Amino acid sequence: MTMENSGKFKYRLLVFFSAVILAAGLSLFFYKGGFINADGLGNNNQTPVTDGFVDELYTSIAGEVPDTDKVTNIKTALAAGEITGIEAAHRIVFSSEGFYANREDSQYIESMKAAAGYDLTSVSGFPTFLFMGRLDDVTREDVFEWFVGTHGFEALCDRYEVTKGEYGDGRFYDPDAPMIALTFDDGPSEYTDTILDCLEQYGQRATFFVVGYNAVEYPDQIARADYIGCEIGNHTQGHANLTTLDRMGVAGQLASVDKLVELYTGHPTTVIRPPYGAFNDTTRAVANVPLVLWNIDTQDWETRDTQSTIDNILNDVYDGDIVLMHDIYESTAEAMLTVIPELTNQGYQLVTMSEIAETRGGMEPGGAYYRFRPLDEI
């Protein structure tokens, strides 16, 4: 072979191997996600790997993955990096499905262990809790905090390429962002679940001031509201005008509700709304928690009209407002299907009374509160 022919051969060999390498690279690009995934589907149809995190957790906690908008919202937010693994897990564990599947403490504990793949050693090196089936001295939130600190949860996040994030005491909200307190009186009722469904779907919360005669009829609604992070307030046993009662009478009206709520949730009410907004020095003296009034009255009790309730909120609401409604009316529950997503879209956080107070100067037992403006506006 001549020198010239040898050079041409080497050149052709170089071109051939370059073409092979380029073809292999392009094939890998297309296969891995440029245009075609491993299933031969276009990239537009590719399921985010993070969806597996949601599916596995729901299956461990509730036994199945619900076919609901709520699940879709969690998956979308997780894939977009808008929420962390811990935030997604909290929404799943404290969902209504999680509540109904784990009514007993023993069920809840076993679900959490299964969700961690029974790898219960602590990432931080602290001793692992040994739960024996009852939560006498710790809450379900305490168990969740332990769960997200296990190697099992960390492995779950790694397996589905999820950013774990940091635990935030069970409530993930921005204290500097605008917030509103939606409040509901006189329930629970057959319509309360509709409101809870909507709050849960959008990751929001509210405060429910319950009366004793309805609390007896709807214990599951109180337990569920508390479980998904809403606050339970006291609206007296018989919707009594507290200004007409002596100390014993006021104490009796409040104590009856507290006993019921503690039976259903494990703790008494944390705030009081005196019926008719009526209170006096006796009421203040007897109350061992704050009195919560309102600055926006939707008049839902008078109009019983869905659109009127929507308009009375959306036309006037402002950061720090306390909105008065009643969850005993179907029209109010229907209004929430518009109000809750709309306020969420406007950037409002819908929070409990204790949450809004915590960021706006706090509340004192016996004190009366009508609204909570940002501290720099007070």
Describe the structure.
Helices cover about 50% and strands about 10% of the residues. With about 375 residues, it is an alpha/beta fold. It folds into two domains: about 110 residues, no CATH class; about 200 residues, Alpha-Beta Barrel (TIM Barrel), CATH 3.20.20. Helix 9 links the parallel strand 1 and strand 2. Helix 2 packs antiparallel against helix 6 and helix 3 packs antiparallel against helix 4. About 5% of the residues have low confidence.
SSE topology sketch:
Blueprint: H1 3-34, H2 51-62, H3 69-79, H4 85-93, H5 96-101, H6 105-115, H7 140-147, H8 151-159, E1 179-187, H9 192-201, E2 207-210, H10 212-215, H11 219-227, E3 231-234, H12 247-265, H13 281-286, E4 291-292, E5 296-297, H14 300-303, H15 306-314, E6 322-326, H16 330-345, E7 349-350, H17 353-358, E8 368-369
Parallel strand pairs: 1-2, 1-6, 1-7, 2-3, 4-8, 5-6
Helix pairs in contact: 2-4, 2-6, 3-4, 6-7, 9-16, 11-12, 15-16
Features:
2 domains, two-stranded parallel sheet, TIM Barrel
Largest sheet: 6 strands, parallel
Q: Examine the secondary-structure arrangement and name the CATH architecture of the largest domain.
A: Alpha-Beta Barrel
Binned, the helix content reads: 40-55%
Number of helices: 17
First and last CA, distance: 94 Å
The topology string of helices and strands comes to HHHHHHHHEHEHHEHHEEHHEHEHE
* Percentage of residues in DSSP E strands: 5-15%
CATH superfamily caption of the largest domain = Glycoside hydrolase/deacetylase
Quaternary status: single chain
Helix/strand-derived category reads: alpha/beta
The CATH topology of the largest domain turns out to be TIM Barrel
CATH class descriptor name of the largest domain: Alpha Beta
User: What is the mean predicted local confidence, pLDDT?
Assistant: 86
Domain unit count:
2
